[in-house]
């Protein structure tokens, strides 16, 4: 099921310079002192990074971390072949990420730049929404660098480098998916209200993160959240599949820590560009109120009191 949450663990920098990552009680690495120390180390590298003056820092990954990356790459490959949309598969083949070791973010950038002009930078964990989207607007993706806990390589309760790179970088290697993502980022730069930003993030969630799309008769996945998750990729076809619908996508409540019971399917990549791409290109500060009124009129939402 969609057990992979999208919640980043909070990161604290202590006065003595140590960095602590606060894992949820149910996190498989919660009681592993070595893992907790490692998470603090890796988050600390991103926190200490001087973005203006230094190249994106590298991480000296351990054999165990490389093994987690290899295992997940190997397990996802046949699932991608069977269940990912061909636009993603072609992009993945062109990006040709290593499968035997964790790539450095600089290596991801080196491969991605000639394909679609995107670069990867490091983040310790959650990036404030507006900063994350502003960077998307200049084709820059904020990525974590840590790996999930080795005891459960096919599960992660938070987005790790496997999600950020196997999910997002493969997708961003398609100039067409990359253009939609960039448009979402550009939208953030002209939106003043938090409500409008939330609307962009909601539509992004149901497309770039959890989008599915028909290819002929077959329903395929293109969302980074589905395609980076061993469990979710095998379940999406059994969810409630609705047509792409901005009023519905923009007003449906969802739980980011639980499986997504409703997914929105594009009829084709052109359809996705027409609906979601155009939305990101034209969304303004009044869009949320307009879509909410439409959702009420159509009975998707209860009428708000006059
Ligand atoms: Fe993501």
Structure description:
This protein is α/β, with parallel strands linked by helices. It has one domain (11-297): Phenylalanine Hydroxylase (Orthogonal Bundle), CATH 1.10.800. Helix content is 48%, strand content 10%. The protein is built from 12 helices and 8 strands. It has helices at residues 33-48, 63-83, 86-95, 105-116, 129-137, 161-172, 175-190, 194-209, 224-227, 246-251, 269-282, 287-297; strands at 11-13, 19-21, 119-122, 140-143, 212-215, 218-221, 240-243, 262-266. The strands form 3 sheets. Strands 6-5-8-7 form a 4-stranded mixed sheet. Strand 1 and strand 2 form a beta hairpin. The protein is globular, with a radius of gyration of 19 Å. It starts with 10 loop residues before the first strand and ends in a 9-residue tail after the last helix. Mean pLDDT is 94; it is low at 1-5. The structure holds fe (ii) ion. Fe (ii) ion is lined by residues 159, 163, 168, 209, 224-225.
Question: Any key phrases for this structure?
Answer:
306 residues; alpha/beta; Phenylalanine Hydroxylase; four-stranded mixed beta sheet; two-stranded antiparallel ribbon; 8 strands; 48% helix; binds fe (ii) ion
Task: Describe the protein's topology.
Elements lengths: L10 E3 L5 E3 L11 H16 L14 H21 L2 H10 L9 H12 L2 E4 L6 H9 L2 E4 L17 H12 L2 H16 L3 H16 L2 E4 L2 E4 L2 H4 L12 E4 L2 H6 L10 E5 L2 H14 L4 H11 L9
Helix pairs in contact: 3-6, 5-7, 7-8, 7-11
The protein binds fe (ii) ion.
The site of fe (ii) ion has 6 residues, from α6 and α9.
């Amino acid at each position: 099921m969609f057990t992979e949450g999208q919640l980043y663990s909070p990161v604290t920098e202590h006065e003595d310079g140590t960095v602590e990552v606060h894992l949820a009680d149910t996190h498989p690495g919660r009681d592993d002192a070595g893992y907790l120390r490692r998470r603090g180390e890796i988050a600390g590298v991103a926190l200490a990074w001087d973005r203006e003056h230094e190249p994106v820092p590298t991480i000296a990954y351990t054999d165990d971390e490389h093994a987690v990356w290899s295992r997940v790459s190997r397990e996802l490959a046949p699932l991608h072949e069977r269940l990912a949309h061909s636009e993603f598969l072609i992009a993945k083949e062109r990006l040709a990420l290593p499968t035997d070791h964790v790539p450095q973010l600089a290596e991801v950038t080196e491969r991605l730049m000639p394909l679609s002009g995107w670069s990867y930078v490091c983040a310790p964990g959650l990036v404030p929404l507006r900063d994350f989207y502003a960077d998307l607007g200049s084709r820059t993706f904020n990525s974590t660098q840590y790996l999930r806990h080795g005891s459960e390589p096919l599960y992660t309760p938070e987005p790790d480098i496997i999600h950020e790179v196997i999910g997002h970088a493969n997708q961003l290697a398609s100039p067409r998916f990359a253009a939609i993502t960039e448009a979402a980022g550009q939208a953030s730069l002209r939106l003043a209200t938090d409500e409008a930003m939330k609307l962009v993030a909601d539509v992004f969630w149901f497309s770039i993160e959890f989008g599915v799309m028909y290819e002929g008769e077959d329903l395929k996945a293109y969302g980074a959240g589905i395609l980076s998750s061993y469990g979710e990729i095998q379940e999406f076809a059994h969810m409630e599949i609705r047509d792409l619908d901005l009023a519905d996508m923009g007003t449906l409540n969802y739980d980011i820590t639980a499986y997504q019971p409703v997914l929105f399917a594009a009829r084709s990549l052109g359809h996705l560009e027409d609906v979601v791409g155009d939305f990101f290109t034209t969304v303004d500060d009044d869009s949320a109120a307009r879509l909410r009124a439409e959702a009420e009129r159509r009975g998707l939402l209860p009428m708000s009191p006059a």
